[in-house]
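[Amino acid chain]
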Amino acid sequence: MMDFKYTLNQRPPFRHLLLYGLQWLVVSIPNVLTVAVLGKLQFADNVALQTLYLQKVYVVMGITMLAQAFFGHRLPIVVGPAAVLIVGILSAASEGFDAVYTALATGGAVLFLLSVSGFLDKVVRIFTPRVIITILGLIAMTLAPVIINLVFSDGNPVFNFVFFIVAIVAVFLIDRMLSGIGKTMTVVVLTVGATVAYFLFNPLPASPSTAGAALHGRLFVHFDFNPAVVVAFLICFFALLINELGSIESVRSMTGAADTAKRTKRGCAVVGLGNVFSGLLGVIGPVDFSISPGIISSTRCASRYTIIPCGIGLLLCACFPAAVAWLTLMPNLVIGILLTYIIVLQLASAFNMIVETHSVKTFEHALTIALPLCAALIVAFMPVSVSDSLPAMLRPILTNGFVVGVLLVVFVEHFVFLKRN
């Protein structure tokens, strides 16, 4: 185990606590920017409501991080918006705002109940290495239409294409050159650098106005239970669960923390409740991020207390709507580049997992992964006319490429190519 300056349950001096917490905060703030696309797509050009959406996200992330530090897994792990829920929210958007977030809250409640009831271990058995690899790939495949729309929705398409390619190549070159704590700052560097570069070639937008957000924005959603949307979100939550388990285990093993089962149970329960809260507020839900080991190794500080100032800092971010409003002005092109960076990392993790787990040994194993990915890609780019012709009750499931892919990989893995003893 690494020689830490401060171990898991050691409380650093107040000055050091603030400095370490600030490092976590600098990494956490840009994570919310990736969901700015949800505010733009759901509230069009209403900057006030977009700002309110991001404020709510900061509140949810801050409260969840503090709850994890005191009552959950009690590990130094950064919390951020779950990328897989972006897929669920955008795929079911046509069913209505309230139906989408009611389903999200329901998924969080189910995750909480699984965690406290002891059924979590039984559910996890479904997710073999090949299923997990496929799910990581599915997130990338099904976000492709969203990224294409972001990259080419505004401005000159030729400029956007060239800017996109140059930015993606540049960010991975920068990522390779950075080391230590600097490597965890890649998203920050990408966000600031790409935004500045974009506005060197394009006019600056007008100053944002947040007037009316508190008056016209609803604090909570109205209950609207749509069974098909709920089923689609439950499948998305399986992927969120995999992400959560991986993040907890990676940091637990790194810090040498005991009581693995208890930490996992409490951590998943807190994330479940965090998603219930976010669903009621009408915003995307939280999950623990896997970048945490990189921050711990670079700072050599494993104290769980360092994420407390970070959680408080996220809550404070929500108290400054004028500052949050500027985040809504980030160009769609830059948001598309951010999402691309994230899904490329997930896709690379999937390929790396194939090598590490030796999961693909036969052609049937390869088919188990390839078939769902291909089906999901086709569904993701399905013409609107086809989607509209599907039965209304099944539309939220059949038009969600991620959901179709997950159902298909589970069926193929456990039934079609099931190894006979």
Q: What stands out?
A: DSSP finds 20 helices and two strands in the chain. The two ends are 40 Å apart (CA to CA). The longest strand covers residues 79-81. The mean pLDDT is 88.
